[in-house]
Amino acid sequence: MMYGSWRHGQAAKIEKLGRECKNFENNFKIQKDFSRMMEIVRYEDMANDPENTTKLIYNFLNLEMSPEISSFLQNSTQNENSTRVVQKPLIFVQ
Known about the structure:
Layout: H1 2-33, E1 38-41, H2 43-48, H3 50-60, H4 67-76, E2 90-93
């Protein structure tokens, strides 16, 4: 009985992952059709390089990133070991 419930839980997780992958694929298709109105920001890009990724977002929105924003990103996205930390992926729609 325990094995059956574990298997059911795994199946639900795999099904949910499949739906998330399909949503991700659909977002890329939409972005391709509306590239002037929508930019996809990958979690990996924001986590690995928050300052430059934020600059790309500001440029996409035709905004200038202030030195205060840059300073904030440098201070708030590093921990004691200088590892970048970001909590959620972002998708911006203009």
